[in-house]
Design goal:
Layout lengths: L1 H22 L2 H18 L3 H17 L3 H17 L3 H17 L3 H17 L7 H16 L3 H18 L2 H17 L3 H18 L2 H17 L3 H18 L2 H18 L2 H18 L2 H18 L2 H53 L4 H70 L3 H31 L5 E6 L1 H18 L3 E6 L6 E3 L1 H17 L6 E9 L2 E9 L27 H11 L3 E7 L2 E9 L9 E3 L7 H6 L7 E5 L3 H11 L4 E5 L2 H11 L3 E5 L7 H10 L8 E5 L4 H9 L4 E4 L4 H25 L11 H17 L7 H8 L3 H12 L3 H19 L4 H7 L5 H12 L11
Parallel strand pairs: 1-8, 2-4, 9-10, 9-11, 11-12, 12-13
Antiparallel strand pairs: 1-3, 4-5, 5-7, 6-7
Length: about 900
């Protein structure tokens, strides 16, 4: 029978081989190779041969993007090498697992697997200085570098290189050179990186292997892309692509497609980039390689964002999310499967132990004893099955509760956002109606509507805040400031409101000159909610009393009032929407929010009544170290810090306000009058003329205006060379995504909906001015015409090119004037001055002078010309003035200038 079985297998094998010769598919070829290796594993008598063949199977599965099988067979090899006590092969297996992790961007587990190799080598004398350990150090350096710990990565790379050099293993030295080059790229030291890449590629071109050559080439290609040398970079990307498809390595082919997509995206060849990414997505679908599919969609998202193609961007984003969700789902399934397997494996081990015991006892004991053990085993299996069932139910219940919490928080967040839009649209026309109304009765009614819409907005904000707390997304933002001054300002409006309502209001805020770390927003919410509820429940003609103090780095706040609240209600004050009865107003969610915020702040809150006095006592820590795990700590800042810096400029910045509503212009003028020179226009055409004539530092514009709307105004300004650099903020009551998208597409710098918060608007304006000022400083220091790594408009690029062309012709002309320069570039003298000031931070005169000095430095570097001749050649007639200007820029006189020193 056995001979017949082997004969049938032999015939099947001949048939299978015959089918291969006729034209087998790649999949059949793959599994034929794997089956051959499995047969060697089954029949081999030497463990090392079995292990090496198990690793070969894992490697084949990895090349064909079958991750689970690759990991499974590699782990089998590792387990066998550990059992057989072959540490070198065990370390090789962990190297393979680490490499699998890297392919899937799992840097943490990659680091763990490589570290295991280091530990194995350290325990065995013959491996302490070995190629295996050097490999581990190199890969650990790679993993650590990708988590941005550059110093630690450098240490591991150096350990690897020293060990390779000690062993005289040149391929390893070149492999480390590639890693060090990547580290230099991360630190922006491009010339060092390029030198190491060139050495590695030169070595591997002559000595191989192709795998190392392709890796070095793609790394150098990435560097050349960053250096904007696209022609040279494309050669390296093509080399990697050719080797990947020559090797028939699917994992590598996917990376090649992704790399080429990235390359063409950076080079601006968006259609070709999309083609490569789509090819990669199709190949990912064929091989179920989800992590690479996710990477491809991420690349498409970047391209469609640059192209501002909303439809395709939306499709790519949906596919990206779907892929991401599928990956997460698989990870969860694997996690549950691993738990079940672990449980079942342990159970089977117990079964085996019991069965062995039964077999040993069967020879000595009677049949009844055997039956007793079988019965015990059955009970054990039943109990184990029950425990497994209970454990799985517990996992499912925990997951469901987590999902419900997430849904609840998401519901609160979504409904809060939905309420904000209609409320904003209610408030905007309401304010217009109120401003235009003269009838006192109608004004009173409109004020009531406004008051309750503000109340609804407050409730919506509270719901949103609670949802953030519930989901764990709310963090403290600590800033250093004077807490007593902050409280004085915060409580003053409540004092006025209380006195107008006929209450007595007493404050006892302890004065302090010291600054403390605290979250202004959260302390404001706690204080205002407590005071609001105190006003709500104070008896007629009653007293409201607030006192605060700071002791031992703890802030103490007490708020008391003569209350109408029954004693039995005090314990329920912090319940959401608690009502004593149907006729009462209830406490809403304000106090519930206060309690959640105090808990987040690691503080305490207590409510008590005594002799009809309700008292809230709050204690909050002011020690930033205690709050470090729940806070984002900021440096001490001042509201007017940016504007104070701008006071050092030669003149106040100019702001142009374009709006057909006189009241809006008046409000904006009042907000910015102290710090800006204000120009006004009532519609778009007038605004355009004013902007071209005066070249303002910033423009605030409405969208809906007669003759020319804000969109058209922005578009014309951004396409005009004289005004393209001016930051523009669009202010509008239009809240739709389409309007915002259109504003961004015409390159508006910001988009703020009405009604707007004055402080937010001021801050946004200040930041745009500050960004422009920093650009000026940078250009002034670098003395370059082409901005590096900073986005500018196409109009500015053309302007800079024209400057270069004009100066190239006239640089040696000492009679060349600013008027000549302005005329040559097609602007008035004032327009040119403000344009250069904005772009480079220098006047037209300084700009020409700096360019002459730069040209002089280039001539000095070339050599062969004396200093005086150089000065005359770049347009200077006074050599002492030439020397002074040169020293102002380069720190040395022309005769002492050595560019390479």
């Amino acid at each position: 029978m056995r001979k017949l079985f082997f004969f049938i297998v032999f015939l099947l094998g001949i048939t299978f081989v015959h089918s291969q010769e006729k034209g087998k598919s790649e999949t059949e070829s793959l599994y034929f190779e794997i089956d051959s290796l499995k047969n060697v594993v089954r029949t081999a008598t030497i463990d090392s041969i079995k292990i090496q063949n198990l690793y070969s199977i894992g490697s084949i599965f990895h090349k064909n993007a079958i991750k689970d099988s690759a990991v499974f067979y590699t782990n089998k090899g590792i387990n066998l090498s550990q059992h057989s006590k072959i540490p070198k092969l065990q370390g090789r297996g962990y190297i393979m697992l680490g490499n699998f992790n890297l392919y899937h961007y799992d840097y943490t587990n990659a680091f763990k697997n490589y570290s295991k190799v280091d530990s194995i080598c350290n325990l065995h004398k013959d491996l302490k200085v070995s190629i295996l350990r050097a490999q581990a150090y190199n890969y650990i350096g790679y993993s650590v570098r990708l988590t941005h710990d550059y110093d630690k990565a450098g240490e591991y790379y150096q350990k690897a290189k020293t060990m390779y050099e000690t062993l005289g293993y040149e391929p390893g030295v070149q492999e480390v050179n590639i890693g060090l080059a990547q580290l230099y790229i991360s630190k922006n030291e491009y010339s060092k990186a390029l030198d190491l890449f060139n050495k590695a590629i030169e070595y591997h071109t002559v000595n191989g292997p192709e795998n190392s050559l392709s890796y070095a080439a793609i790394c150098r290609g990435y560097l050349l892309v960053k250096m904007k040398e696209f022609n040279e970079a494309e050669k390296d990307y093509q080399l990697y692509y050719d080797i990947a498809f020559k090797e028939k390595n699917i994992a590598k082919q996917l990376r090649a497609l992704s790399y080429f997509g990235y390359f063409h995206s950076q080079a601006g060849n968006y259609d070709r980039a999309v083609s490569y990414y789509n090819d990669g997505i199709n190949l990912s679908d064929e091989t179920n390689y989800l992590s690479m599919k996710e990477e491809m969609y991420n690349g498409l998202i970047g391209i469609y964002s640059k192209q501002k193609n909303a439809v395709k961007l939306n499709d790519a984003y949906k596919n990206y999310i779907a892929t991401r969700n599928k990956i997460d789902s698989i990870n969860k399934d694997e996690e549950i499967y691993n738990l079940e397997t672990k449980f079942q494996t342990k159970q089977k081990e117990q079964e085996i132990t019991l069965l062995k015991s039964q077999n040993e006892l069967a020879e000595q004991r009677q049949k009844s004893q055997t039956q007793l053990f079988i019965g015990m085993l059955t009970i054990g299996l039943i109990i184990g099955g029950f425990l497994l069932y209970a454990y799985r139910n517990k996992l499912k219940t925990a997951q469901k509760l987590k999902e419900l919490d997430g849904l609840k928080s998401k519901f609160f967040a979504n409904i809060s956002h939905e309420f904000r839009t209609p409320l904003t649209l209610i408030k905007s026309p309401l304010q217009l109606l109120k401003n235009g109304e003269t009838d006192a009765s109608k004004i009173k009614q409109l004020s009531m509507i406004e008051q309750h819409s503000d109340r609804m907005l407050s409730l919506v904000d509270q719901l949103l805040q609670l949802s953030k707390i519930d989901s764990g997304n709310l963090k403290l933002i600590l800033q250093k400031s004077n807490l007593s001054t902050f409280l004085e300002i915060l409580t003053e409006p409540f004092k006025i409101n209380a006195e107008e309502a006929g209450f007595k209001f007493k404050k006892n805020i302890e004065k302090s000159q010291d600054s403390h770390w605290f979250d202004k927003d959260i302390i404001e919410k706690i204080t205002t909610n407590l005071l609001s509820n105190t006003l709500k429940y104070t008896s007629e003609n009653g007293l409201i009393w607030i006192e605060s103090s700071i002791k031992n780095d703890t802030f103490h706040l007490n708020i008391s009032n003569a209350t109408t609240l029954p004693n039995r209600d005090v314990s329920k004050l912090f319940e959401r929407f608690y009502k004593d009865n149907n006729a009462s107003d209830g406490v809403g969610i304000g106090l519930a929010l206060v309690q959640e915020l105090v808990t987040l702040y690691k503080g305490s809150i207590d409510a008590s009544t005594q002799n009809d006095i309700l008292k809230f006592s709050v204690s909050l820590p002011l020690n930033k170290e205690l709050l470090k795990d729940v806070s984002v700590i900021l440096e001490e800042t001042k509201n007017d810090e940016i504007l104070k810096e701008s006071e050092n400029l030669e003149e106040l910045p100019i702001m142009l306000i374009v709006d057909d509503n006189n009241d809006i212009r008046a409000v904006l003028k009042e907000i910015f009058k102290p710090d800006y020179h204000i120009l006004e226009a009532s519609e778009g055409e007038t605004g355009l003329k004013l902007a071209i004539e005066s070249i303002p530092n910033i423009i605030l514009s409405d969208i809906m205006m007669p003759n020319m709307d804000g969109f058209e105004l922005t578009d014309k300004l951004k396409k005009n060379e004289a005004t393209s650099f001016i930051p523009i903020i669009l202010l509008t009551a239009k809240t739709s995504d389409e309007s915002k998208l259109k504003g961004l597409q015409i390159e508006a710098d910001d988009y703020i909906t009405k009604p707007f918060n004055h402080d937010i608007l001021k801050t946004k304006v200040q930041q745009l001015i500050e960004v422009r000022r920093k650009l000026q400083e940078r250009y002034s220091k670098e003395l370059v015409l082409k901005p590096v790594d900073i986005t500018i408009t196409p109009a500015d690029e053309k302007f800079i090119q024209r400057l270069e062309q004009v100066l190239e012709k006239e640089l040696s002309n000492s009679e060349y004037t600013i008027d000549d320069f302005a005329k040559a570039v097609g602007m008035s003298r004032m327009q040119l001055h403000r344009k250069l000031k904005s772009l480079f931070g220098v006047s037209a005169t300084e700009f020409i002078r700096n360019e002459r000095i730069k040209a002089a430095a280039i001539l000095i570097e070339k050599g062969g010309i004396n200093i005086s001749e150089i000065g005359y050649a770049v347009g200077f007639t006074d050599m002492s003035y030439f020397a002074k200007c040169f020293k102002d820029i380069y720190g040395v006189t022309p005769s002492n200038y050595h560019p390479n020193s």
